[in-house]
């Protein structure tokens, strides 16, 4: 089915190609407009429902991801979410996640941003698309930096764990070699 030249989907899972999820009203229903690198879709789910479903798809709950963010960087309000850290799928909300006007952006796709009119920010993506958001520049930058902090700390933890595992593997292999 198509609405205003957009393909309409019943459900959606975020991927590395997902750039932004916007609220979208259609016949008094709360849906989402999803913009990906190569297309745009209308999804019969609210933005928060897409985030929650995507977290589950990748093996965690939204609540668990929020608790992880709190444990790693101490953020509880408008928390960025590591939907799938190994594929660098990190998203952040522009307002409270349950607010009807909340937009979710993928951190890896934000290329540039600048203040616009009062309480608005223009966001440019890596594929040269742009969007005007109803959020102050200061709030947007704060959310972007929080997400960068989460990405950095989580990446450091993953790398440290990998180094430790490689060290233990080498130690185990050395013991085997010495016993021969």
From TrEMBL:
InterPro entries recorded: ComK
Domain of life according to the entry: Bacteria
GO biological process: establishment of competence for transformation
Pfam families: ComK
Name under which the protein is recorded: Competence protein ComK
Lineage: Bacteria, Bacillati, Bacillota, Bacilli, Bacillales
């Amino acid at each position: 089915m198509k609405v205003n030249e957009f393909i309409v989907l019943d459900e959606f899972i975020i991927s590395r190609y997902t750039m932004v999820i916007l609220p979208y009203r259609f016949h008094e229903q709360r849906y989402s407009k999803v913009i990906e690198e190569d297309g745009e879709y209308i999804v019969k789910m609210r933005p928060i429902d897409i985030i929650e479903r995507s977290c589950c798809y990748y093996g965690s709950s939204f609540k668990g991801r929020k608790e992880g963010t709190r444990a790693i960087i101490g953020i509880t309000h408008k928390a960025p979410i590591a939907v799938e850290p190994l594929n660098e799928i990190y998203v952040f909300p522009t307002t409270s996640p349950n607010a009807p006007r909340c937009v979710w952006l993928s951190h890896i796709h934000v290329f540039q941003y600048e203040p616009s009119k009062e309480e608005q920010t223009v966001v440019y993506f890596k594929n040269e698309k742009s969007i005007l958001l109803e959020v102050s520049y200061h709030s947007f930058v704060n959310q972007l930096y929080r997400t960068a902090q989460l990405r950095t700390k989580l990446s450091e933890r993953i790398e440290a764990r990998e180094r430790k595992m490689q060290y233990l593997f080498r130690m185990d292999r050395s013991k085997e070699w010495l016993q021969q």
